[in-house]
Prior knowledge:
The protein is mostly helical and 205 residues long. The protein is built from nine helices and no strands.
Amino acid sequence: MSSAALPAVAPDFTQQAVGYPSLFLLVLIGALVPVVPTGALVSSAAVVAFHRAAPFSMALIFVTASLAAFLGDTALYWLGRRGMKSKNGSRWLEAIRERAPEDRLAQAQQKLADHEVAVLVLSRLIPAGRLPVMLACLVAKWPMRRFARGNLPACLAWAVTYQLIGVLGGSLFAEPWQGVLAAIVLTVLISVAPGLWRRMRGTAG
């Protein structure tokens, strides 16, 4: 291999070596502590992969994001179950309860009773829908294995959805940074839209 080829290969390899573990850790942390915009991270990574015309990178992003989301959800559910069994609860359980208001919990419980596992898939695609459904599963005393079976397709569908948002952003703009910005704006709009809609309905009522 000529030395002239090394500068072109090394930066790309270095970016991948740093990028995938970083994406994994950020999505994992975002699943445990829902303050990191994990959807925007996945979409942004997909924009970059799209502009590189790297389908293998797309596959790695999908595997990395879905695995991190699944492991994060599973860990949070396990911690929530421990809190449910404890007399004093736990800070993890309280964190889930804080993000699952009574009205949304009641809706999640009703939907879970009617549709069971399908609700888990939808909950990951609906902004702020994951934790109320997770709490409903905890209240219903779903075992770990049952939750994990339902959560796996949910995480796969979530990763695909936000990758497609990234591909859409990447296809609309010539420069990667423009696609990343568009993907971030779109994911933010998706995340705040349900809250704005509920607020508008409450004001109208």
